[in-house]
Each structure stands twice: as C-alpha cells, then as structure tokens.
Amino acid sequence: MILEPGVTDLRRWPAAASALRAGEPSADPARFTLVFLHHAGGSSGAFTPFVPFFPADWNMLSVDLPGRMMTRGQRACRTSGQALDFLLPRLRPLLDGPFAVFGHSMGALIAFEAARELSREAVPPVWVGLSGAAVPGSGPDRAQRHSWSRERLTAFMRRLGGTPDSVFAMPDVLDVMMRVLRDDLAIVDTYRRHPGPPLHVPVSVFTGQNDPVAPPGAAAPWSEQTTARTTTHSWPGGHFYLFDHVEAVSSAILRDIDAARLASR
Fold this sequence. Notes:
By secondary structure, the chain is α/β, with parallel strands linked by helices. The protein has seven helices and seven strands; from the N terminus they run E-H-E-E-H-E-H-E-H-H-E-H-E-H.
C-alpha cells in the first residue's frame, strides 16, 4: 500500500521519505495498526523511540500536519476541523484492519475527534490514548498563544521544555519552529469539542505529574467523553514526560490495547 505524503511508516524511519518517493509499498492493512499523532510544534519523528517496544508485526504509523517534514509547502491547518480534513483522507485507506490511535497534546485533541468521526463512519478504533491534554473547560482559560510576541512565545517554549537549548541559539531554525508552533497552537487554543455523541471505545489518559499545561486533574474529565472504560496513567515529569519514560509508556499502551482487544471479542 502506498502512503500519502504526510504519513510516515515509523518502522522505516528515516528511509521513509525516499521509499515513498520511489512509490514502494508500505503498511499492510491486514495487520494491527497503531497511529501516533504529534504535539504542537512536533513531528512524527518524535515517536520513533517507541517503535522497538511494540510487536514487530504491527503497522506503526504517524501523520505530520502541514508545515513540517514531507508536508512543507502545504497550507497550514489552524483549526481542528482543518486538521481532520487533512488527516482522515490519508488514514482511511490504511485502516482496513483493527487499529488504535495515540495522540500527545495537540495530537490528543485530534486523535479524539478523528476517533469520533471514524466511529460515525462505522470504522471505530479499538482504543484511543490521550496524552498531555486537558479537556476543554477543565483547566485554565486558554490564552491565544498563537498571537503572542516572539519573546513571550520563546519564554513559553523554554518553560515547557521539549526544545533543545541549541535551537534558541539558531535564529533561522527558531523562526521555522515558531511559525509551525503558532499554527499548531491556533488549533489547540481555538479547539472546542465537535458536535455529536461521545466515543464508545476504551480510552486511556496519560499525564505528567507536573505538567503545567495538562495536569492530571485537568485531564481526568476525558473519562466523561466515552461510554466505555477509561484507564489513567501518570509519570513524573512535565508536559513531555513520555519521552523520559518511553519503555514504561509503551508498555502501558500495549497492555491497554491488548485489554481493549480482548474485551471486544
């Protein structure tokens, strides 16, 4: 199966770009598929450390929103609706078999709405993982961070972590990152739950215990967004806690997916 530009086969990273240009087949729809959705300002490459901790016969996919990696030059998404319009046509052909979705931060919001839309289309995931994301209305009021000054946004990036210190010493690189980040933050800060019913599949909520953006208390109400079971996990760390606990987070994802698949039989 050919992957659309923007979709990355994480098992073939970093060779995925050249393979796709050559038109080589990739993901096997007969296998179980796990889709990762990245945080604001991030990209699919952030999830490559997780790949070795999952079964070798799983498809491990990620999607880059416009503005990064193989989607540079495409018009940026600035609302969750635009992100879904970009994401879903690229994923649908790859989801002929059972699948699950895991999103971190901005990716969690998009994962939730993508799962709801796919459920309405009668192709629901077996499980959804929501990491580092507060339920709208459950945390502090969202400032319109995409309109902040360069200085204020830079300070926010430093406080949140996740950006190497060396980047702040490279103005050209920082300019590119900030442009992408502003577009992504517009998605997050204007997000409101899309109309429609809740999910009917198991959800797992993942948090960093000291996350200033999505503390455990602000993420807990995700349990109200599904009629199925909700499982919670929390680790020491801030907003990017998961990258400090890759093996443990991967193990929790795998256990929860296995439990969800067993319960659905």
